[in-house]
Specification:
The structure holds 3 protein chains of 3 kinds.
Chain A: H1 2-14, H2 16-45, H3 65-72, H4 83-116, H5 120-135, H6 138-149, H7 154-161, H8 176-185, H9 187-199, H10 203-211, H11 216-244, H12 248-253, H13 261-269, H14 275-300
Helix pairs in contact in A: 1-2, 2-14, 3-14, 4-8, 4-9, 4-11, 6-8, 9-11, 10-11, 11-14, 13-14
Chain B: H1 2-33, H2 52-58, H3 61-94, H4 97-112, H5 115-132, H6 144-168, H7 173-181, H8 186-215, H9 220-223, H10 230-240, H11 245-277, H12 281-285, H13 290-294, H14 298-319, H15 323-358, H16 371-374, H17 378-382, H18 387-396, H19 417-426
Chain C: E1 7-16, E2 19-29, E3 34-38, H1 45-53, E4 60-65, E5 68-69, E6 80-83, H2 95-99, H3 101-104, H4 110-123, H5 139-152, E7 157-161, H6 169-186, E8 189-194, H7 197-203, E9 206-211, E10 214-219, H8 221-226, H9 231-236, E11 241-251, E12 254-259, E13 264-269, E14 282-287, E15 293-294, E16 304-314, E17 318-324, E18 330-336, E19 349-353, E20 360-363
Parallel strand pairs in C: 3-8, 3-9, 6-7, 7-8, 13-20
Antiparallel strand pairs in C: 1-2, 1-4, 4-5, 9-10, 11-12, 11-14, 12-13, 14-20, 15-19, 16-17, 16-19, 17-18
Helix pairs in contact in C: 4-5
The chains are: A mainly alpha, B mainly alpha, C alpha+beta.
């Protein structure tokens, strides 16, 4: 009854035509594009890997073999656990965490500086400079880092020329290029949420704290950071999720020995040809990321509504 | 206290330089490599100023095809995402308060879901749909363009929605009520009041959606099917073989981005100016008033300078031919190589002599055959050659045929340095 | 011009969930009348207005405009036009487009609309301003544009939701006069919402005073001010000194109250309480500051009491004298400045008196909180 009233009010407010159009558009988005594909992928990840004609046949039953595979490895393998895939998984998460921290450390001072300086042409140009790299294709950004960090890249050539080293350093193998590239790719997603929050911080609060004799680090610790917390966690969440889910940068900048978890998923879908297993791995990635983000938000007492501001 | 300030300023300046160096350096380096002649994109050593990579780019069928696909997909994504994002934002303002948080979480989630997962779920879902519906594998549900648009719109619509929410927060719902009160129907009120108000946001959401679609890789890589987008093609190229035509493309994209950003900045500046003066925008933009328009508008000055620079570069590119330079470099390389090889030979001979003095049992490779295989290491040549070229060019430049090398210049017009190397042995 | 039509609220209740915004409102507004709803913020007056304009359906009861039941009729179909508190001028439309929006949605031609816009701009004394945007006008000009826009729809009833609250004092006083003039010229029903008693009293034919969703009293400004129906009205409309106590005796329409702190005082029983107020009932006695005077002698009387001057404020035409009665009772007295020497000074002990007919006794009840 209450729901009926709700719909009546809604259509009274928007009119039948417009109201149904909005509703259909949102339902299409939420149900067809967001919810059903995720559920379908979840369902699919519990299926056997079958050739298309056998799908829906008697052999098409539910199984947890793909999840088992991730944890225990192929049946008959000589290790108890799937050391390779689990190792990649753990390393991906750790690396994503590292990239997140790197970006936070790098971006906080600038976000603070931009947020607290009063507008002005110079600041606007700085903001513009910040945005421009973001509009450049992700692949090209990774490519740029390959030019710089490659064996005969800019840095090696320069160091060789200056006589700092005698042999080129393999930055790619050492993952330096990968971290630099990933950190680079998501800098903006860290800086803007923090900047937006700090911009709304009353300068007088900082003045007052300084007036009371607080040293600069205490001002940040007690005044600025608590205030900027929603922005910081929003930025960290996005950078973490995107780094963990990155595919292009690891493919281009990753060393031969270090795989990213997304690359394994990619392989199951393309060269491996085992879609259900790829789906299962994707589910694991998704769920783990959600758990990490939710617990981070719980830890820092931030609401989901703060994300994306 | 004062020294403290200076120190602080210095640290801040250094930090800004490092930060923006990190941010812009890679783009600058990449852009410059587009004009260097070696076939592997690199900045050092600088060999010849060349525009041939733009030519190579313009004749790359796969890139051109990718651009076309990207545009089709981009436009589809813009339409779908803007509509869904707008509807999503409008519904958010009206939804039952108890449902609002859940609803917001669902529609914002696609931003946080890894793009890979979105691509996979889209692929899996529509694949299974088509099986359920009994459609053939060539049907629309397997069409790369269809799947990519859906997959990308899933999360791009969330971005659009955020843009719309920000704008809607400043919308006075009283305006819609006023329109209704004055006799407008709901659709009239929407079209005449809300849509005009949302127009700037719709514009920026569309641009955002298009760019996001254009550069998307993670989702598209699972859904593109037979229609690789530009980004997919680029990724293939970057992963499996690089030449500076990609740098050339990057340079074009960067230049377009900067021009776009500056034009936008100027537009905003002008609007602000208009608002500050209390005059309507039309009054400021109308008429010829360049001087005023420049005043206090660094973006405009930069834009004009860039345009001039661009024009002169194009003029220069058409009149300039890098062939002479390339020949020089080629010659120099060979001379250098000869000298090195000579040096090595002498050194070896010296060693041999020494060793012969010491004892007869030492292996001797006195024939000069292929110096590259026995060269002391890539390091010696590394300054000049990319590792890949080294092996090929090594044997080609035989030390006993120096006289002929200038003659190769005749081919210079058509050959890139790489081709030149391969052509060289044929002349023997 | 058209004669305005009646607006009737019959037993109107409006609820939001468990919250009752309007409780059993029965109001009859006559055609062509300038009618005000006066009350503090949150009293439900805007809610009533929205139910008349059609943005809200009453949970119970009916709204009639010109005798026609408005249930189920949307705001765009009602013969009302609303002037919003923030005016709600369409920021992206020019002034003339704003004014003639109601014609645009009905499909009137551009020439027709321009002509009508020019007429209305003439009427609100803003000729040649039609091409501007709302942001380029001053507050008072915007105000007039909003009125013109509402009038362009040719409504039978014009609803105004505190339209003057954003203006500064001078302009507000000027616009009061102007609004009243426009109303008399076009002759339609005006329903005006305000929390400012000055506005309500100066402009209205009749005023409804509201408290927490309840209409306490309906009457002319004169009635509401001099013969309040409830302690709330007495304390909300204008200022009043309140003396709490019990009814000691009743003589016709006069009652003697034994107050808690100020002894026994005599006053007229308010019209609404006559016949119902009984001896021994808790009661409140209201004396307006301007009804108080300094007594010529100190002889005790039931319309006199003693108080000490705490401090004074000089406002030009009047002095406000703040006094302390027995047991710390606060009292305010306003004396007209007739140019003679001041009769009071801080610390002075005075005997105050009033005309008993000018003071009002009401059954004890809720006061307006300051």
């Amino acid at each position: 009854m209450k729901v009926a009233q709700l719909f009546r009010d809604y259509f009274a407010k928007n009119g039948i035509g417009l109201g149904s159009f909005l509703l259909v558009a949102v339902l299409f988005w939420v149900v067809i594009l967001i919810v059903l594909p995720q559920l379908s992928m979840l369902d699919f990840s519990f299926r056997h890997h079958l050739p298309p004609p056998e799908m829906g046949g008697p052999k098409d039953t539910y199984t947890i073999e793909h999840y088992k595979y991730l944890v225990l490895g192929a049946p008959g393998a000589d290790t108890t656990y799937n050391v390779v895939d689990l190792g990649v998984f753990g390393r991906t998460l750790l690396a994503a965490l590292f990239v997140t921290i790197l970006d936070l450390v790098l971006c906080y001072p600038l976000a603070y500086y931009l947020g607290q300086s009063r507008g002005g042409g110079a600041i606007r140009i700085l903001v513009l400079l910040l945005i421009i790299p973001y509009w450049i294709n992700e692949i090209l950004r990774a490519f740029a880092f390959r030019i710089i960090f490659g064996e005969s890249g800019l840095i090696n050539e320069m160091m060789l020329a200056m006589g700092l080293i005698s042999d080129p350093v393999d930055f790619i193998r050492a993952n330096v290029a990968l971290y630099a590239g990933l950190g680079y790719a998501y800098i903006l997603l860290m800086i803007f949420p923090i900047y937006n929050v700090i911009e709304s911080l009353d300068r007088n609060q900082i003045e007052a704290a300084r007036d009371m004799g607080a040293p600069w680090w205490r001002i940040h610790w007690r005044v600025v950071i608590p205030y900027a917390k929603p922005g910081i966690s929003s930025g960290c969440t996005m950078v973490f999720m995107l780094s963990a889910g990155a595919l292009a940068a690891p493919q281009i900048l990753g060393g031969p020995s270090s795989l990213w978890f997304t690359q394994i998923i990619y392989q199951w879908f393309n060269t491996g040809g085992n879609w259900p297993r790829g789906a299962a791995f994707a589910i694991v990635l998704l769920v783990t990321c959600i758990i990490i983000v939710l617990s981070m938000m719980r830890l820092f007492k931030v609401k989901i509504g703060d994300i994306g501001k | 206290m004062k020294t403290n300030n200076i120190l602080l300023k210095f640290i801040l300046g250094a930090y800004l330089v490092v930060f923006f160096g990190y941010l812009l350096g890679p783009l600058v380096v990449m852009s410059i490599t587009a004009f260097n002649s070696p076939s592997f994109p690199k900045l050092t050593p600088w060999e010849c100023l060349t525009f041939e990579w733009f030519d190579v780019l313009a004749h790359d069928e796969r890139i051109l095809n990718g651009i076309e696909n990207s545009f089709v997909i981009g436009i589809g994504t813009v339409i779908l995402s803007v509509i869904m994002g707008l509807a999503g934002a409008l519904l958010l303002t009206q939804i039952w308060p108890k449902l609002r948080a859940t609803y917001y979480t669902i529609v914002i989630a696609p931003i946080l879901i890894p793009g890979v997962v979105l691509g996979i779920s889209t692929l899996v879902f529509w694949d299974r749909m088509s099986i359920m519906l009994g459609m053939s594998s060539g049907g629309i549900l397997h069409n790369g363009i269809f799947l990519t648009i859906l997959g990308q719109s899933t999360f791009i619509a969330s971005y659009c929605m955020l843009v719309f929410i920000a704008r809607l927060q400043r919308f006075d719902t009283g305006l819609t009520e006023a329109a209704l009160d004055l006799g407008a129907t709901q659709v009239q009120a929407f079209r005449k009041i809300l849509l005009p108000f949302m127009k700037p946001a719709i514009g920026s959401a569309a641009v955002l959606a298009f760019l996001a679609s254009f550069e998307n890789y993670n989702t598209t890589t699972f859904t593109f099917g037979k229609y690789p987008t530009l980004t997919i093609e680029l990724a293939q190229k970057v992963r499996y073989g690089i030449n500076p035509s990609i740098s050339a493309l990057a340079f074009i994209i960067i230049a377009l981005t900067i021009l776009g950003a500056l034009a936008h900045e100027i537009y905003r500046r002008r609007q602000q100016l208009a608002l500050a003066n209390g005059a309507p925008v039309a009054a400021v933009s109308g008429g010829f008033q360049l001087p005023k328009f420049f005043r206090g508008n660094p973006a405009a000055i930069i834009l004009v300078l860039l345009a001039l620079g661009g024009a002169s570069t194009i003029w220069f590119a058409q009149s300039y031919s890098p062939n002479a330079c390339k020949m020089d470099v080629r010659e120099q390389k060979q001379l250098l190589q000869q000298e090195r090889i000579k040096a090595i030979r002498e050194k070896r001979q010296l060693e041999q002599q020494q060793k012969q003095h010491q004892g007869p049992d030492v292996f001797s490779g006195s024939k000069s055959g292929s110096p590259a295989t026995q060269s002391p290491g890539k390091g010696a040549f590394g300054n000049v050659f990319a590792p890949g070229n080294l092996d090929k060019s090594g044997p080609a430049a035989k030390p006993d045929e120096p006289a002929k090398s200038p003659g190769k210049g005749a081919f210079g017009d058509v050959f890139s340095p790489k081709n030149l190397d391969q052509a060289a042995p044929k002349e023997d | 011009m058209t004669k305005g039509v009646d607006v009737d609220l019959e037993n109107v209740w409006i609820r939001f969930g468990d919250f009752v915004a309007v409780r059993e409102a029965n109001v009859n507004i006559k055609g062509g009348e300038f009618f005000s709803f006066l009350g503090p913020s949150g009293c439900g007056k805007t809610t009533i207005l929205r139910s008349v304009s059609g943005f809200l359906e009453p949970s119970e009861g009916t709204v009639r405009i010109g005798g026609r039941d408005m249930t189920g009729i949307g705001p765009n179909k009602r013969p009302t036009a609303l002037i919003f508190q923030n005016l709600a001028l369409f920021p992206l439309m020019k002034i003339w487009e704003n004014i003639t929006f109601s014609m645009e949605v009905k499909g009137a031609s551009k020439a027709e609309r321009r002509k009508r816009a020019d007429e209305l701009l003439e009427m609100i004394a803003l000729p040649d301003q039609g091409e501007k945007l709302p942001s380029e006008l001053s507050g008072g000009q915007k105000q007039r544009v909003a009125i013109a826009r509402a009038l362009c729809a040719e409504p039978d009833v014009l609803l105004l939701d505190e339209p003057l609250s954003a203006l500064d004092l001078k302009l507000r006083q000027h616009m009061r006069t102007e609004l009243r003039e426009i109303q008399q010229r076009v002759g339609i029903t005006f329903i005006y919402i305000t929390h400012d008693q000055g506005e309500a009293l100066t402009m209205s034919d009749n005023v409804a005073v509201m408290r927490a969703g309840v209409v306490d009293q309906i009457g002319s400004g004169h009635t509401v001010y001099n013969d309040p129906a409830t302690p709330f009205v007495a304390s909300f409309v204008g200022e009043n000194n309140v003396f709490r106590g019990k009814v000691k005796s009743i003589d016709g329409d006069m009652a003697l109250i034994s107050t808690n702190r100020t002894g026994e005082l005599l006053a007229r029983i308010a019209t609404t309480a006559q016949g119902t107020l009984k001896v021994g009932d808790p009661a409140m006695l209201f004396v307006r500051p301007e009804a108080l005077n300094i007594a010529p002698d100190i002889t005790p009387a039931p319309n006199r009491f003693a108080a000490m001057v705490k401090h004074e404020e000089f406002e030009g035409q009047i002095y406000n004298v703040f006094l302390e009665g027995s047991e710390g009772k606060e009292i305010k007295m306003s004396l007209v400045n007739i140019g003679t020497e001041r009769q009071s000074a801080e610390g002075m002990n005075l005997t105050l008196e009033y005309v008993p007919e000018q003071a009002v006794v009401l059954p004890a009840g809720e006061l307006a909180s300051e």
